[in-house]
Amino acid sequence: MVQNEEIALEDNVKIVPRAPKGVPDGDYKLIGWGIDTTGRRLIDEICQIAAYSTTSQFSQHIMPFADLNPGSRRRHNLRIINIGRYRMLKNLKTNKFVKTKSEISALIDFLNWLEANRGDAKDGIILVYHEFRKTSPGMLLEALRRYNLIDRFSKVVKGFANGFNIAAVKCKNSTKSFSLRVMSRMLLNKEDDFGNAVDRAQASFDVVVYLGQGERPDLNGSETQTVNGNESHINTFISQFVNPVSAEEEEIASFKVLLERQNTFRPVFGALMKATLPERRHASHLRRLLAENNIDYDKLKTAYENSAKTGLEDILKNEVPNAKEKDLTELLEILDCFFDPQKKAVQPKPRFFANQNRRPKVTRQTLNKENDSSLNNNTTETSSNTASSDATPRSETGPIQQIEATPTIVQ
């Protein structure tokens, strides 16, 4: 399958994305969609949902219960404003408040719009998005599950297609970066920051349709026809990149199990997860290595109680094949120091601030102030000496004693 090919990124890091299962050829309709969220975790909330087709568009803001984290605020240009008992969503670009709805009202409106724009597609709708790290489908399905809307959604939507995977296969000889901004500039000749879900939805749709046009039988035709997203050649091209809704639900279930297993290592990596950002990322990577290989805290504890450090080393070498030697050595040291009561647990490195040992810079203004103060002190001393000399005349031998004038009495 072409989806299993490695994707080379800008920083020379290679990843193997999880291959979509694909759907059989059929009569589908493509719709671009995107969401703005309060974060990128599975428990975060949706604050805007948007969709785009050639005949209609949908956009609705949602008032979340939690505030947007700093990264999402900068990415989406949205912020929650609290005024007394009221919460409002503000667009930081226009500096205006936006109209919002509750999550269930927005999701029902979105489903109604999908059902109205399905058209003649007998086999359903394929939602197209463009993300390097796939988070949108899981967050949407979790929001739908909270209100028991999964069944209604599955009757309309057949699956999800990630434009990033499609671009990675079709454009692998043209560029090393497959982000939406690069694809839009290279294929559509459009420049945008894509901070808004509406812009991302339209660009995702246009990029996939552009790449699908290469599969058209009459590619050398004289006239360019308008694409509606339900053409047979596009459906055949994109069907292999579609992940059905049922497959997405299975991935979410397995991901939740992975998170539960990963959270069992909180006592081991607790101190490291409170350190600087690079150390947190590295500790999260080490913890993820153990969880992905079905290793939890109880298993390591039992191994240490039976065979001490040797038991830990056997588990890491035999059951973590996808780890580097350096990571295995570091994991063994962290676990051994944690379980051994005679050793001190591994602590994060002390934070170092670059300017803490530097002498303060002396500016010209500071020097002028010091010079002025010294001049003032010299002037004060000179004036005090002059005043004392005027009050008490001095000679070579010392101060001259003043003779008091005695009055003359005339008889």
UniProtKB/TrEMBL annotation:
Residues 28-187 form the Exuperantia RNAse H-like domain. GO terms for molecular function: protein homodimerization activity; RNA binding. Residues 266-338 form the Exuperantia SAM-like domain. The lineage of its organism: Eukaryota, Metazoa, Ecdysozoa, Arthropoda, Hexapoda. This is Exuperantia SAM-like domain-containing protein. Pfam families: Exu_RNase_H_like, SAM_Exu. Residues 349-411 are annotated as: Disordered. GO terms for biological process: bicoid mRNA localization. It comes from Aquatica leii. Residues 373-392 have a biased composition (Low complexity).
